[in-house]
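Please, structure for the following, as tokens.
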Amino acid sequence: MQKSTESVTEHLPLEEIRVTSISCLDPPVEWEGEAEDGEPPLPPVLVEEDDRYSLLVHHRTVWSARASSKLAVRSLVVRSAVHIPIAHKTVRNCLEEALLFDGLLRTGIVPNRSRLAEMLGFSRARITQVLNILKLPLAIRQRLLLADHVSEFQLRPLVKLDDEKRQLSAFSRLMVDKLTGRQMALFAASEEAGGEPAGELSDIERIMAAPVEGHSAAPAEPASSAAPEDVMPAREAREPKEPEARIEAPHAPQPRPQPPQPQVDVAASVVAQRQSYSRVKQLLESLGTLREADWQEAAARLKATREEMILMEGLSLLRKGLYERAVETLLRCVNLVPDNASAYYYIGRCYNLLEEPGRAEEHLRKACEIIPDDPEFLSELAIVLEKQNRQSEAASFYRKAGALRKSANAKPRRT
């Protein structure tokens, strides 16, 4: 095992990355930071996004680095498709495999699931099955990072359960009794049939339930249709009665001047929001990961506005994995400035990470309406659409985002 690991990592293009600039899931309460089997730690696999690094694989290496107060850790930063097969060979944990796939798709390094499956020699269905692990509650995902022996096949019945408490109970049974995939399927089936959780698992369930206290997975409400309002003017237009036409004539011109006016405002808003989004990126470059306790003081020295401070606070919560609290904070930002594209984008990301694609799509579409040509917004929306099995829509947004990135990269070369 050690030889094979060394052969995979021996020639990796590793980079020194500051530990404070890496965001990842927090360790479960039972993690004690012990070295495993005397093996050298595997280099973390990261992707760069939003001026920070997201950890995808080998969480325990980063946790240990933090525990020992290391300043930097040698890491593999996946920057192109060339690094993907190498990074995948180092994976030995099913959740980290799902995080790797999600990170590659989210950052646009791989355009879609079909392409990822082709690169790794998998079927597209297999990619989806692995990604489905991310639908499990946070408490289970944290514990999975310590459970290299658990496979996606064993977890598949848990994903199908629609109740978080039953998922926690079934996962506890899996960990305690070391159930096989078939045994897990039978146990999950009995749960769906109305079976009660085993009493002897209550202590484990209590520990696991603590990190996800307050988590809600309310389904996205369908958007209300405006079709009846659209139909009424068409019917009135067909009315042949002349008096009614004359009576309504003074009212007819009133809606007509309105469309040009919002168009001017929208254009101005797009310019303002682009400037605001650029300002947010500049602040992030200066403030770093937003994990340090004094980032608010640093933001104040940079003369961040009240709106920017609230946005940064929400982003700080997002990077710590506190997605629901992040949504609440970012909504405050939207209340202050209703056309804040950055806030809508980060709210959409939170809902995406909470596995609520319907809500994620709603907010990401608002961000794209305000700034229609930002590749980050479009890529995130494409990922959410793909999760809802709307492949053709997702592909169009992937293509548009890719074209914008290619155009942006081409501009400096011309000068």
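Strands lie at 15-18, 22-23, 45-49, 52-57, 72-77. The chain has three domains: 1-132, 136-213, 262-409.
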